[in-house]
Amino acid sequence: MTITCVCGTWDDIVKAGHIIQGNGKNITAVWFAYVDYLHGKKVYSNFKLAFAETLPAQEIIDMSLRGEIHDCTIILDEMSLILNSLGEKGEVLKFIMKWVKQLRKMGIDLYWIEQRANDVHLRLRTQTPLALEPEKYHTNGYDNNPQMWEICTVDSCKRTDHRILVFSKKPWLPIPIKILNPQIIGKLYNSKEIMLDSMKLEKGAVDKLN
Question: What domains can you pick out in the chain, each with its CATH number?
Fold first, then answer.
């Protein structure tokens, strides 16, 4: 079981290319989840994927807490919206602690996506051992020579020569761990889908969880 954050910035140290929303977060998370799928794992997502079962975050998390799913992968976009919708900080903290414990128990891998990781509750960030920061580049016709690429600083850039360089922020590694082609991976999901997910947690409900 592993928890991975895919974000625009993990520690608010912003470089050119990180400040834009469309820097390849979803492309990166979708690719890793797709690899899990190709290895035979069931994938649950709160946004539409060609290979996953799409459900609201509330339903996915409830199923994991009830032990109805196991040895699978969960991918959740806009994690701060989901957690912030729970209300009181004390309840959110208790919820995260019990949820993470259940994920470990059931062998569930979680990929959570957020532009600014610090917008997500500290407890979940502390429980997240892996943090990935993608950067979007233009190949400028040099597909096989990354040294000639230049970073893309336009959110909804219309150019088609993009590549996503995936850097590991936690643990820190000096070179990208993966180079992704968004023209290919983008076919697996709808990048224009608007995410309005949330959860409802009644006060004291967390105490009733096993």
Answer: 3-134+167-208 (3.40.50)
